[in-house]
From TrEMBL:
The gene is suhB_2. Its cofactor is Mg(2+). This is Fructose-1, 6-bisphosphatase/inositol-1-monophosphatase. Keywords: Hydrolase, Magnesium, Metal-binding. It is an enzyme of class 3 (hydrolase). The keyword Magnesium applies. Belongs to the inositol monophosphatase superfamily. The keyword Manganese does not apply.
């Protein structure tokens, strides 16, 4: 099977990172959230990137990693205590970790996009993480601009599972699986194969500033979806489409940030998870997402993720709105 080693290492690394994030999350005090204290997410974000980059640097030393975080802030003398907290959390999974190692692993994630690279969002949906809602650890391998392997660990996502904690894994040409966070009994999943069912749902961000909720509602309606949206943080939304829980995920540019360009780590893992489950991912103009241009999807605007059947209808509705 293609990319078997990459897949196994990515799963191991992302699950370990998910475990670290959950430990930190359960220790967030309600007061910290009220005060909008971002320290829990900072610790988990840095710890997750450190653990994953440690694994990738050991197993694939020649592969660049394009991660969301860098250690510049953590290296400041006034951050010494925070750094040692991160090292403690990482050390619970990778014994004897030193603060210097943490810094160097995090900075291993400052690579550049090339012919083959990994991209990592150590905590996607930071706002969801702080609200104790959805978040994801998202890791993907990209070759020649195409995502080849994607792993999404969603520790708080339940869908139809008996308990929260879902992992989605996809390899190009080999389908998408979903399992619990023990990785046991992965089940092949498929998008919902209907376009006219009154029960079809669409997903969008909880954060109104990350999209255009009014326009998203209109477009979903034009595509025949009559149900209210399901609002969810992070790339868990891609998992919802891949598993058939939703038929569509719309992320249209917010009127406040019309020129926003999406980040590769916010979409790479999710894209392959949906495509390999039989769905489609493009930008709002129907163009495939181009992961070869750098950390941002500079040639794309907005994101449309569907079960495939609805896709052309959605793009046509968007074109009609702008013409
Ligand atoms: N104006 C904007 N438009 C779209 N996405 C944005 C945005 N500002 C920030 N984001 C991205 O939205 C991501 C969260 O998406 P969602 O709303 O689907 O949970 C953030 O990832 P992080 O949480 O990793 O920083 C961030 O990269
Ligand atoms: Mg993100």
């Amino acid at each position: 099977m293609a990319y078997e080693t990459e897949k196994q290492i990515a799963i191991k690394a992302a699950l370990a990172a998910g475990q670290l994030c959950e430990r930190v999350r359960h220790e967030i005090s309600p007061e910290a959230i009220e005060k909008k204290d971002r320290s829990p997410v900072t610790i988990a974000d840095f710890g997750s990137q450190a653990l994953i980059c440690r694994e990738l640097a050991t197993e694939f030393p020649n592969d660049p990693v394009v991660g969301e975080e860098d250690a510049a802030e953590l290296k400041q003398p006034e951050m010494a205590e925070r750094l040692s907290q991160v090292a403690d959390y990482v050390g619970a999974i990778a014994p004897n970790t030193t603060p210097d190692q943490v810094v160097s692993w995090i900075d291993h994630g400052n690579g550049s996009v090339g012919p083959r690279y990994w991209t990592l969002d150590p905590i996607d949906g930071t706002k969801g993480f702080l609200r104790k809602d959805q978040y994801a650890v998202a890791l993907a391998l990209v070759e020649d601009g195409e995502v080849k392997v994607g792993v999404l660990v969603c520790p708080a996502l339940q869908l139809s599972a008996a308990q929260p904690g879902l992992m989605f894994v996809a390899v190009r040409g080999e389908g998408t699986t979903m399992s619990g966070l023990d990785g046991q009994n992965p089940q092949t999943i498929k998008v919902v194969s209907s376009e006219n069912d009154p029960n079809l749902r669409f997903v969008e961000s909880v954060e109104s500033g990350h999209g255009n909720q009014a326009q998203q509602a209109e477009i979903a309606k034009a595509a025949g979806i009559t149900q209210d949206s399901l609002r969810m943080d992070s790339q868990a939304k891609y998992g919802a489409v891949a598993s058939g829980e939703a038929a569509l995920y719309l992320r249209l540019p917010s009127p406040k940030t019309p020129d926003y360009r999406e980040k590769i780590w916010d979409h790479a893992a999710g894209t392959i998870v949906v495509e390999e489950a039989g769905g489609r991912v493009t930008d709002m103009h129907g163009k495939p997402l181009d992961f070869s241009q750098g950390a941002k999807l500079v040639d794309n605007q907005g994101v449309v993720v569907s079960n495939g059947l609805l896709h052309d209808k959605v793009i046509a509705a968007l074109q009609q709105q702008t013409s």
